[in-house]
Description:
Blueprint: E1 4-10, H1 18-32, E2 35-41, H2 56-59, H3 68-77, E3 80-84, H4 94-102, H5 104-107, E4 108-109, E5 116-117, E6 123-129, H6 136-139, H7 142-156, E7 160-167, H8 178-187
Parallel strand pairs: 1-2, 1-3, 3-6, 6-7
Antiparallel strand pairs: 4-5
Helix pairs in contact: 1-8
Amino acid sequence: MINKSLLAILGSPHVNGITSAMLDCAIHRAEKVGYHVTKINLYEKNLLYCKGCRACMNTNICIQKDDIQEIAAYFQKCQMVLLAAPVYWANVPAPVKNLFDRLLGTAIEETNTFPKPRLQDKTYMLFTSCNTPSPFSWIFGQSRGAIRSMDEFFKTAGMKPIGKIVCAGTANKKEVPKQIIKKIERCMK
């Protein structure tokens, strides 16, 4: 059996929240179908902010020395990435956006026209949750904004989506709804 590797990223400060529970459900399913999973919590990592120097476009990795080197290596080695981030003001939390900024040179190569992806032949799955109830979360762009932000990074990097899961109306939820769990399991075949 070929060892498939998966990088699971939690971009939420709430390790016992709905977003984290969605990611844990996907991890459990991935392990059942043969993936070796590495899970990281962005809120526990030391990630400096991007300086906009663009040196990473030549080095393929950020030149600032912190935990981004470890994360970039995981991105390069894995076959699949799971990213779970809650909705913050119709977007992702700051640590997730910072991750995207810091992975610029790892994700793409600069050309004279359109950026060339560096992470092809990999897949990704996105998870988000928000307090705004459905369908208002989608109508008013809350969850849609977060999904769009995450999706843009992965698509530009050359990766292919296998699922995008939204759990709306989480303000009073203590666990992931069964229909969301079923969606996750369908995507993680």
